[in-house]
Amino acid sequence: MQTVPTILITGTSSGYGLETARHFLARGWNVIATMRTPREDILPRSDRLRVLPLDVTAPESISAALDAAGPIDALVNNAGIGMAGAFEATPMAMVREVFETNTFGTMAMAQAVIPQFRARRAGVIVNVTSSSTLAPMPLVAAYTASKQAIEGFTGSLALELAHFGVRAQLVEPGYAPTTRFSQNSGPRVENLIPDAYAGFAATVFADYASPSAVTTEADVAEAVWTAVNDPSPRLSYPAGPDAVALAENAVGAQP
């Protein structure tokens, strides 16, 4: 009898993580959906679903969640916080908060699951970053830096883990206006736009308000599904038509 695989997904209270949990549930996987404040009512009832508390910035929370989860076959590091504004006006405390979740939280989760994957010589880690790593974008400097760090981290990690039959991969979502990117950050964006930047920022936000293409939560869930189930050595999977276009342009621009 074939064993049903198990995936643990961080940051499933909304957006990409929530849709990814639904996606894997619908396709027969066991899903461990983690969030800082657990809510079972936002996901379909299923005997293949477990909802666990997890704060990726707290080592004791990571240990407790993984102990409760038991063996897993895949980890999706999706938990993250967004931040937009002029870097000049961004408090360094906020920059550190973004890195604690987006960068160090992702690294800590990966480090915590690697031993079981290495021992079994199987498993996959998917780190969700952003299309802001594919091309420079204004007013998201600190956020992009936190995600760009994970791009480099994952590329190197993939080479280390391949020796043990374990994969590490990236999913790079595009601009998704239906997610809570601006709501799960600290200071409101208008508080991070000094008067000197007002004209420039107005132009940037006008462009964001009428994009030529956008990414949906379903786009990201499908990209994660593909990454988890793709045995090839491919490293990155842009998610959404705008991210795909940026990735293609980046490849075309290489000498």
Explain the overall architecture.
The chain is α/β, with parallel strands linked by helices and 255 residues long. The protein has seven helices and seven strands. Strands 3-2-1-4-5-6-7 form a seven-stranded parallel β-sheet, with helices on both faces. Helix 3 (92-120) links the parallel strand 4 (74-77) and strand 5. Helix 2 (59-69) packs parallel to helix 3 (92-120). The chain starts with 5 loop residues before the first strand and ends with a helix.
Summarize the structure.
It is globular, with a radius of gyration of 18 Å. The protein has a seven-stranded parallel beta sheet, with helices on both faces. With 255 residues, the protein is α/β, with parallel strands linked by helices.
List unreliable stretches of 5+ residues: none
Order of helices and strands: EHEEHEHEHEHHEH
Predict the CATH topology: Rossmann fold
CATH architecture: 3-Layer(aba) Sandwich
Question: Helical content, roughly?
Answer: 40-55%
Share in β-strands: 5-15%
Give the helix tally: 7
Terminal residue distance: 51 Å
Radius of gyration equals 18 Å
Layout of helices and strands, plus pairs?
Blueprint: E1 6-9, H1 15-26, E2 30-35, E3 49-53, H2 59-69, E4 74-77, H3 92-120, E5 124-128, H4 141-162, E6 167-173, H5 198-209, H6 217-229, E7 236-239, H7 241-253
Parallel strand pairs: 1-2, 1-4, 2-3, 4-5, 5-6, 6-7
List keywords for this structure.
255 residues; Rossmann fold; 7 strands; alpha/beta
